[in-house]
Amino acid sequence: ITPLLLAGRWVEGSAGAYDEVENPSTEEIIARVSTASEDDVEVAVTEAARAQKDWAKVPAADRAGVLHRLA
Predict the structure, then answer these.
(1) Which of 34, 31, 32, 30 shows the shortest CA–CA distance to 11?
(2) Which residue among 8, 13, 30, 49 has the highest number of C-beta atoms inside a 10 angstrom radius?
(3) Pick from 26, 3, 23, 30: nearest CA to 15
(4) 4-6 and 9-11: which strand pairing?
(5) pLDDT for 27-50, tens place per residue?
(6) 15-27: per-residue pLDDT in tens?
(7) Where are the alpha helices (DSSP H) in 1-71?
(8) What is the DSSP letter of 13?
(9) Shortest CA distance to 19 belongs to which of 9, 7, 29?
(10) Integer Cα distance of 53 and 44 in angstroms
């Protein structure tokens, strides 16, 4: 089961459940991912808002480079 990335750490969702990801062309289950609870989403939103303040200080060209490498 693929965990969630919350506050910079890979963790199992606190819901204790998972969702199956299906390949639509074959209907094969290709992954299982942790299901996020409302609390997990709250942590993610809070951490994203906190991190955005630092991210906004990074020059636009540097941010573009990071995003380009991730794509």
Answers:
(1) 34
(2) 13
(3) 3
(4) antiparallel
(5) 999 999 999 999 999 999 999 999
(6) 999 999 999 999 9
(7) 38-55, 60-70
(8) -
(9) 29
(10) 15
